Amino acid sequence: MDWTAFYDLPALSGDEFDLHQALAQALTDQGLSLYRDQLGSVLGLKPREQAPFRVMLTTNLDENGGLIQAIRPDGLLDFVALGRYQKTDYVNQVVRLLTRDHVPHLGYGVLVEGQPYLALGAASAQQVADLGIQVGDSFVLDFSRRQIAGGAWLGRNLANRASLELILDMSRQLQDKIAYELAVGGISQSLVGTRGAITATNLIQPDLALVLDASPVPASDYDPKCLYLRYFDKTLLPNTALLEAIRKVAQELGYQVKGQVQEAGTDGAFIHKTGVGAPTLVIALPLLQSPGLYQCLDPASFEPVRDTLVAFLSQLTPAQVQDFGFGSRGGGPHDH
């Protein structure tokens, strides 16, 4: 796998085709059967007869960016921002516009009469049309992953690309060692309302789910050798029994465990509500000084996540999965 190229693939919400295809190939290379929904999510698993349960290990595919909504006579492009950033955030930023056939063109954000637009170096709408750009085409930031001081990475969308790299690595280590089914992959359209989470989860129907994410951590609490578990966001209360089980495994491996809290949710918002409910936990890679469009991630933070989850998933039993359920904590005589 060419990870530099993988991290650089554009994947705006609803237009994740390039990343979808690369991930599908990586899953196929591991000998996994592909499961795709109709929104762009792609997961792989190794089917097993009479598998006792199914675990889902995922992250999102999509990144922030926007869609062209109008082309002005002077060649400037009006756009709508998709994801968690505002239109003004793209002023003075270099962007990569993609035609319907994903032919890339560089552009940049400008502020004209107080309004943000994208410029391509074109002086008329016809010049824009000659480039093959039309209303509805997408764009993302044009910024490739690079290494900065101390060995950390700086990039535009490290959160899910790093998570996908980790997921593929863990899958490679686990698929031939477990008796249950482990579905791994990426979910589409997460930044625009966890839409793919609904379709992908209905497709997989997991009994337990782990979601990888990345979150800014204050410098005072930052440690790339620490495991960060999501204690709360507005869309998901973690399964406490699952959280404690993973915490115990991490501590037995010698890793410190810290709780992480944030406002924004993840695909876990829907995954934990599938069927009668799937115990779900979010594991967060720590981002340092990453409040805006760019993210800073130390690849050393992979180690505690990979070691802990591989150990946990290697020893996971049907009894444990059953014990993570709410009913196992004591129900009434009419439980079904």
UniProtKB/TrEMBL annotation:
<dbReference type="GO" id="GO:0046872">
    <property type="term" value="F:metal ion binding"/>
</dbReference>
<keyword id="KW-0031">Aminopeptidase</keyword>
<keyword id="KW-0479">Metal-binding</keyword>
<dbReference type="Pfam" id="PF05343">
    <property type="entry name" value="Peptidase_M42"/>
</dbReference>
<comment type="similarity">
    <text>Belongs to the peptidase M42 family.</text>
</comment>
<dbReference type="InterPro" id="IPR023367">
    <property type="entry name" value="Peptidase_M42_dom2"/>
</dbReference>
<protein>
    <submittedName>
        <fullName>M42 glutamyl aminopeptidase</fullName>
    </submittedName>
</protein>
<keyword id="KW-0645">Protease</keyword>
<dbReference type="GO" id="GO:0006508">
    <property type="term" value="P:proteolysis"/>
</dbReference>
<dbReference type="InterPro" id="IPR008007">
    <property type="entry name" value="Peptidase_M42"/>
</dbReference>
<keyword id="KW-0378">Hydrolase</keyword>
<dbReference type="GO" id="GO:0004177">
    <property type="term" value="F:aminopeptidase activity"/>
</dbReference>
<feature type="binding site">
    <location>
        <position position="213"/>
    </location>
    <ligand>
        <name>Zn(2+)</name>
    </ligand>
</feature>
<dbReference type="InterPro" id="IPR051464">
    <property type="entry name" value="Peptidase_M42_aminopept"/>
</dbReference>
